[in-house]
Amino acid sequence: MLIASECTEPLISLIQSDVGPAVESGVCAFEKLLDNERLVEYTADYDVVDLLVGLVFSGSNNRLIEACISTLIKLGKDRTPCKLDMVKAGIIDNCLELLPTAPIELCSLIAELLCILTNSSVISKSLDAAKIVEPLFLVLLRPDISLWFQHSALQALVNILEKPQSLTTLQLTPSQVIEPLISFLESPSQPIQQLGTELLNHLLAQEHYKQDIMTTNAVVPLVRLAGIGILDLQQTAVKALENISLSWPKAVADASVTTLNHRMHCGNRLHFSTRESTITVALKAFFQESCDPSSAELMTEVGATDALLDLLRSHKCEEPSGRLLESLFNNMRVREMKASKKAIAPLAQYLLDPQTRSQSGKLLAVLALGNLFQREGLARASDSVTA
């Protein structure tokens, strides 16, 4: 420790020497020195930030630039005053100048530094941070980017765009923004999925992103994420679906029908214990679509009534499930289907179940039965006695 600390001043002298190989070697050694957390604190007394920031934009020596940025990352972690010094010295402008043409390894280091800087609320709300958004989104379109870059860039964008004032300055079109995000929703990495979904949620706070047709492409991957049972990711995906369903209810309903159909054909039952919020969003979208006769028939054909009755039996989402059943059975063609006759006994059992506490659910179940009995002859079915 003592010997290492004595290296600090000589290494800084090398960095200041203006002799190319000496500067590069000095920065690389200094960066290694900072692997020791105690030495990071020790070097805080030396004014090296301006020196390193200047070297980042000093030329085309990528090894030197990478070493400078790695050093700044180590100096800046959890040290807001040091981060502010970097921003004041112009590190954001220097990094953005390099970003479009830098090799991917250097891009990843730049993204990590920007992520660390924007982790400070003071910086993330600044005009300097707002300049980061568009360049990062454009690099995210590159086919060769690494998971490391994706994670750092997405986290930096979340840090910035969770502040409403940053969203208002964003000039990118929905295609430039939503398209790369969809690929992150389908990433094999759960942290990337989480960050991509969080970022999408922030963007959907802007009406023009919510209403753009490109946004509908995010629905299917969001429905998948909402059903995988990872609570944080599920909640974020459900929130995004709620936002999208305000402008595109049919897209959410169609994706939910497709997912439901797939699961039922695979012989599975949905386990609703951890997915109630997900199903509620889907049911709201279904309800808006159930007024269309062809949509109501499609839902019934793929087994929607069975799924809704399962929900009532398990006492989950009782009110939206009952509301959708009542709406479906209000359709004359749906009442003529075999599935409708099979619904009488489960609805009666739901009403007789002592665990049924939802008064609105009970009322809607009664209304659903009333709709069913408009079908001629159905009131004389054997199950109707119980009802």
TrEMBL record:
InterPro entries: ARM-like (IPR011989), ARM-type_fold (IPR016024), CSI1/2/3 (IPR044297). Signal peptide: none annotated. One of its GO terms (molecular function) is microtubule binding. One of its GO terms (cellular component) is cellulose synthase complex. It comes from the Eukaryota. GO terms for biological process: anisotropic cell growth; regulation of cellulose biosynthetic process. This is ARM repeat superfamily protein.
